[in-house]
Design goal:
300 residues, alpha/beta, six-stranded mixed beta sheet, 12% strand
Length: 300
């Protein structure tokens, strides 16, 4: 079993597929100190803010310093544009890219014992029997990842990225995106069969534990615990699943650096909000900016 594979993928992409959550209780507000860095050259500043894509409804998404950095910025970058049209496109693309091939239903990927476990999990989550039979393993795994998070009170509308988007829109900021919905979902569609199968198996096995696991990551994010986040999200993926690490982190970070360093060639202030796993680590944006000679400091 590939432990924590689904956790890493959920941390990276779950916000793209989370629908409307059930109405949980409002989360308690408290002081949070997430990771925020400032990259500078002679005439430019770029704030790098590491996010988590789903949060309990009502949970805060940043502190006063984060809000001040957005206020200071002329442009705000997120991984995806976030609007109803983009959300609808994600759902359409997920169905198109994630529909099982003829003659190869979801159950054909699993042993009889694993199918029995799948049926038990879907019944517990309230799905009709066979509801996922027409899905490819990656989409079924993400569905089984998202559903317990929704039931536990996590909500994409309260995710850090969407909250930043809403705050920035209200402030009249110019919004930029680093990727398209099709690019993100194609990452999953291009996963090899072995990884897809293990992703599905783990989603079945760890469905009940996922809210607690994500809760631990959310706590580390709130405290700005770079070491804990790096170990849980980045390093386990890098050492245990190098092919996935290349696709999930390294290739995307490198592509983003091309766009962001080009932006730094101009002048002014930008705010970049992407998953925290892309900010930290040996191949993260902070390390790559430092390697290129930019001044980078953590804003505390």
């Amino acid at each position: 079993m590939m432990k924590h594979l689904v956790r890493s993928l959920a941390a990276a992409f779950a916000f793209a597929l989370v629908g409307c959550a059930q109405a949980p209780a409002e989360a308690e507000q408290g002081a949070i100190t997430p990771l925020l860095y400032a990259v500078r050259d002679q005439d430019s500043t770029m704030y790098l803010y590491g996010t988590v894509h789903v949060r309990p409804r009502g949970a805060d998404w940043g502190n006063a310093r984060v809000r001040a950095a957005i206020d200071e910025s002329g442009e705000v970058w997120t991984e995806l544009l976030m609007n109803p049209e983009a959300d609808q496109q994600i759902q359409i693309l997920a169905q198109r890219l994630g529909t099982a091939e003829p003659g190869h239903p979801l159950s054909s990927w699993l042993t009889p014992e694993e199918n029995a476990s799948l049926n038990a999990v879907t019944a517990r989550l309230g799905f009709p029997q066979g509801a996922l039979e027409g899905y490819k393993p990656w989409l079924a795994a993400l569905t089984l990842t998202v559903a317990p998070l929704v039931r536990a009170g996590y909500d994409s509308d309260s995710g850090v990225d969407r909250s930043i988007d809403a705050y920035s829109d209200a402030a009249g900021k110019s919004m930029r995106a680093l990727e398209t919905a099709e690019q993100q979902l194609t990452f999953f569609a291009n996963l090899g069969p072995d990884i897809q199968r293990e992703m599905l198996r783990e989603a079945i096995a760890e469905s009940e534990d996922l809210p607690a696991m994500l809760g631990e990551m959310s706590t580390a994010w709130e405290h700005g615990d770079e070491e804990a986040l790096s170990q849980a999200v980045v390093e386990e993926t890098r050492t245990e699943y190098p092919e996935l690490y290349q696709m999930l982190f390294l290739d995307r970070n490198n592509a983003w650096m091309t766009a962001l360093t080009h932006e730094m060639e101009g002048s002014g202030v930008d705010f970049v909000a992407v998953g925290a796993g892309h900010i930290i680590g040996r191949d993260g944006l902070v390390a790559q900016f430092r390697a290129r000679g930019y001044r980078v400091e953590r804003v505390r």
